[in-house]
Amino acid sequence: MIHGIINVYKEKGYTSHDVVARMRGIVKQKRIGHTGTLDPDAQGVLPVCLGNATRLCDMLTDKDKTYRAVLLLGVSTDTQDTSGTVIRESPVTFSEEQVRSAVTGFEGEYDQIPPMYSALKVNGRKLYELAREGIQVERKARRVMIHEIRIEKIELPRVEMTVSCSKGTYIRTLCSDIGDELGCGGCMESLLRTRVGRFKAEDGLTLTEIEKLVSLGELEKYIVPVDAMFDGCPAVYVSDGYRKLIDNGNQFPLNALDGGLAGLVDGHVRVYNSEGCFYGIYNYKKDAGVFSPVKMFLAKG
C-alpha cells in the first residue's frame, strides 16, 4: 500500500469524489481521501492522501488556499457561477476605480453565508440536494478571512483576481457578494485553485499523468511522505528499549530518546524509531519530561 500525499491537478468535469474514485482504480487501493472539495467546473490543486496519510485530510483541509478567479459583474445566478440559471442581469456602469474599491474592500475578515449549492449538510441532507428540489433553508453566516485580493486584470464586466483566503471560503459567494456590494450583482465565471498549503498548481499531476506514472513504476517519486508535512517540527529518535511504547502509541519519557536532545523545547516533534521509521507526531512537555501522542501514522501495511 502507498502511504503519502500526491498533488493532483483536478481538471474540469470531475468532482472531487470522481478524482478519489479514479485514484482508487489507478493505484489499486481503497484507502484514499481528498482534502477539500472543488466544484466540477473548477480546476487546480487537490491534494489526495493515500494509505495512512488519510489521517492528514482534516489537517490539509484547514490550510489556507489561493485561487485565480474571474468575476463576471452584472449577472446573478442561482448557483453563484455561470453554470447556474440567470436570475438577474444589470448594466455595469462603474469606473475601474469603483470596482477596485469594492473588490479590495473584502480583504480581511467578513461573515459569509454559504451558498445553497454546496455540500454542507443541514439535518443530514446536503444543501445542493435541497436546492435542486427548490427548497431554500436558512444558513448561518461563517466568519472567513480574505488575506489578500490581487486584481490581475479589469475588462468590464469581467474582473480577473487572485484570492488568498482561509478554509471554508466560497469564491463563488465572494464574487456574488462583490456584485451585491456594487449593486449590479455578480457571479463566478471560472476558478483555478493555485495553492493549498505547500502544494502548487504548477506541480500538480493530472489523472492521466498519474496513470502513466503507475504503468512506468515511477509514481513513488511524486509521493510526498507523511513526515515531510511536518518538517517544521524537530525529529527525535526512540531507542530500541522503548520501541514497544511507540508501537502501541503510548507516552514515553525523555530518557527513551537516542540522542538529539540539544535545544529541545515544548511543542510538537516528529517521532522515529532507531531505524528511521516515522511513527507520528508527539507533544513534548519539558517540565514533565514526557512525550504524548498527538497523531500516529505508523504504516502497517
UniProtKB/TrEMBL annotation:
<keyword id="KW-0413">Isomerase</keyword>
<comment type="function">
    <text>Responsible for synthesis of pseudouridine from uracil-55 in the psi GC loop of transfer RNAs.</text>
</comment>
<feature type="active site" description="Nucleophile">
    <location>
        <position position="39"/>
    </location>
</feature>
<dbReference type="Pfam" id="PF01509">
    <property type="entry name" value="TruB_N"/>
</dbReference>
<dbReference type="InterPro" id="IPR002501">
    <property type="entry name" value="PsdUridine_synth_N"/>
</dbReference>
<protein>
    <recommendedName>
        <fullName>tRNA pseudouridine synthase B</fullName>
        <ecNumber>5.4.99.25</ecNumber>
    </recommendedName>
</protein>
<dbReference type="InterPro" id="IPR014780">
    <property type="entry name" value="tRNA_psdUridine_synth_TruB"/>
</dbReference>
<dbReference type="InterPro" id="IPR032819">
    <property type="entry name" value="TruB_C"/>
</dbReference>
<dbReference type="GO" id="GO:0003723">
    <property type="term" value="F:RNA binding"/>
</dbReference>
<feature type="domain" description="tRNA pseudouridylate synthase B C-terminal">
    <location>
        <begin position="172"/>
        <end position="230"/>
    </location>
</feature>
<keyword id="KW-0819">tRNA processing</keyword>
<dbReference type="InterPro" id="IPR020103">
    <property type="entry name" value="PsdUridine_synth_cat_dom_sf"/>
</dbReference>
<dbReference type="GO" id="GO:0160148">
    <property type="term" value="F:tRNA pseudouridine(55) synthase activity"/>
</dbReference>
<dbReference type="Pfam" id="PF16198">
    <property type="entry name" value="TruB_C_2"/>
</dbReference>
<comment type="similarity">
    <text>Belongs to the pseudouridine synthase TruB family. Type 1 subfamily.</text>
</comment>
<feature type="domain" description="Pseudouridine synthase II N-terminal">
    <location>
        <begin position="24"/>
        <end position="171"/>
    </location>
</feature>
<dbReference type="GO" id="GO:0031119">
    <property type="term" value="P:tRNA pseudouridine synthesis"/>
</dbReference>
<dbReference type="GO" id="GO:1990481">
    <property type="term" value="P:mRNA pseudouridine synthesis"/>
</dbReference>
